[in-house]
Design brief:
single chain, alpha+beta, FAS1 domain, 7-stranded mixed sheet, 8 helices, 19% strand, disordered N terminus
């Protein structure tokens, strides 16, 4: 029973971290008489302009796992992929689309929460959370936006965790991902090509239903 409570506490902390990282600046103190904002603010940075016609797409330099390992601000996620036992699977032919939360997203978790999720007995839970950030098939930002347009503003992605992740275009043109708990993350940098898929760098953690 205590073990179950510890797992749930860690997942709850992870959910809170995901909400926080969707904000680009600390939220001002909320007066006691005012309700808290219903949703985090979208990133203030504008999406990168479209590449000119005929521009070459950067060549892939490794698998999605190698891309994560080589990206300094995704070192926490790269380590967790190994801890969860997913490195071999995600090094396979795929292809995969990976939504990769930043180190900052994980750093916002309360002290000890990430360590608890990384314990051997919690490996299945950690694997489910990470699989929730992976979709089978290679979906570029252009393809994602095409699906969003075709779905009248919403695309439902089936993750490797078996739970849906909703994609929409955010206020500033960034792709916005909403999980089954209603929390949002935004794509900061799209289309990092891999030999077995593509990685989209995000500023927040999406969390599936656990248990």
């Amino acid at each position: 029973m205590l073990k179950t409570f510890a797992i749930l506490a860690s997942v709850t902390a992870l959910t809170g971290a995901g909400v926080a990282v969707a904000q680009t600046t600390p939220a001002p103190a909320v007066p006691q008489t005012m309700p808290a904002p219903a949703a985090p603010a979208a990133p203030q940075t504008m999406p990168a302009p479209a590449a000119p016609a005929g521009a070459m797409t950067p060549a892939a330099t490794g698998t999605v796992v190698q891309i994560l390992a080589a990206t300094p601000d995704r070192s926490t996620l790269a380590k967790l992929v190994t801890t969860a036992g997913l490195a071999a699977d995600l090094s396979g032919p795929g292809p995969f689309t990976v939504f990769a939360p930043s180190n900052e997203a994980f750093s916002r978790m309360p002290a000890g929460a990430l360590d608890n999720l990384s314990k051997p007995e919690n490996k299945p839970v950690l694997a489910t959370i990470l699989k929730y950030h992976v979709v089978s098939g290679k979906l570029t930002a252009e393809q994602l936006k095409a699906q969003i347009t075709a779905g009248n503003g919403t695309a439902t992605l089936t993750t490797l965790a078996g739970q849906p992740l909703t994609a929409q275009v955010g206020p500033n043109g960034n792709i916005m991902l909403t999980d089954v708990n209603g929390q949002k993350a935004y794509v900061d940098k799209a289309d990092v090509n891999a030999t077995n898929g593509v990685v989209h760098l995000t500023n927040g953690i999406n969390v599936p239903k656990i248990g």
